[in-house]
Here is the input.
Amino acid sequence: MSESNMDKGIYSNLLALASVFCILSMSFFLRMAREGGAFPARSMNKRIYLDFNATTPLDSLVKDAYIHALEDFANASSLHEDGRAVHAKIEQARAIIASLIHAKPSEIIFTSGGSESNNTVFNTMISSALTKTSRSRDNWGGKRLVITSSIEHPCVMESARHIEEAGCTVEYLPVDSQGIVDVDQYARILHAGSASAAREKQPLLVSIMMANNEIGTIQDIQKLASMAHSYHALFHTDAVQAVGKIPVDVEALGVDYLTLSAHKIYGPKGIGALYVREGSPIEPLIRGGHQEKGLRAGTYNGPAIEAFGEAARLASERLEVYGTHTRLLRNRLRDGFVSKIPDIRINGHPEQVLPNTLDVSFPGAEGEAILLMLDLSGISVSTGSACASGSLEPSHVLMATGVGPELAHGSIRFSLGLSTTEAEIDFVLEKMPQIIAKLRRFSTVSSKIE
Here is the structure.
């Protein structure tokens, strides 16, 4: 057996042992918690869902639109009346979605979701990097420097690794303790690349997410995009977590590409969109038919697109109400934790943050154990640690902000929605101090913030 295969075997065994350890540890915590009476009878009649950043339920109006659209079974590419009727509804939805982000309908490409949209942008950059000339507006061909941040969504991180394998250079920008990109380092990288006489060292693309899915920190995309353009680089932002929660205006932001997804704004899963500024280079990830002007092949998912349009319409109408409602409840939850639970850390920026998102580290308590104990109390949340899924690594986002592995493993994300109530927040505030106190009694890890 080769040395590399031996290393892989050892790593696989360690991974399996770590997974077993996590499961046994959580079983121990839950057994002790039950014996200690950590789970009094629930006082809420239904489960409390605080994982809206993962996905949202279908809004009732969206669901009605979706079900109604299922009757429109014709292929939107067909020339007969039935096909034309479906095509007209798709174009109506496209216009509504474009309006949500202040784009032109012609600049919206339908995809299967955020991951496909992000991959499409990076796939386009591979084509540009390997081409010495470009027919596009600013001749990006042959440039091979790509810049992104250290806290991007996994689909961007993996796309960045793939583009490295294709021959590009990728710079990962550091962030500060609150998740804000290091603008000085960004400027140095842009300047150094642009000053190079070698075209392959010049900046081609910058991809920075608008709002982080874990800690909710919001970047100054307008400033970052302007800096990229001053060095003749393209700019992409993954705005999946931002659209529908905060105002998004592609014209004001000045971005070349923007990613959005329906299931984050009370729409269906499996449908998303990519905004491509007129004149920006774009290559299809999925090739085949003529759909989307040949930029995304495949039979149109008419019902999902129509439902996406309805979700976008509602998101636009409710934007201010959403922000006010979720911000008040998020602050109530945050202040309650601070007053009721000692030695905790609030992750993310205190002001430049999504109104619905609160990420908290609880030293001396494992995130998975907290999650499962909350689950047994009827509360659904997320953890930044992926121990239970077979990964040895804590959240890359929290690690990038300087949070150590132990603290990162003890972090929970609470993400609120339009349906979240004050009573639900108070119920969580009733349960959490009990859960954290009990887990800390069983833990061998310090409960103090270093």
In short: The longest helix spans residues 302-340. The radius of gyration is 23 Å. The chain has two domains: 26-52+356-442, 60-315. Residues 60-315 form a domain with the Aspartate Aminotransferase; domain 2 fold (CATH 3.40.640.10).
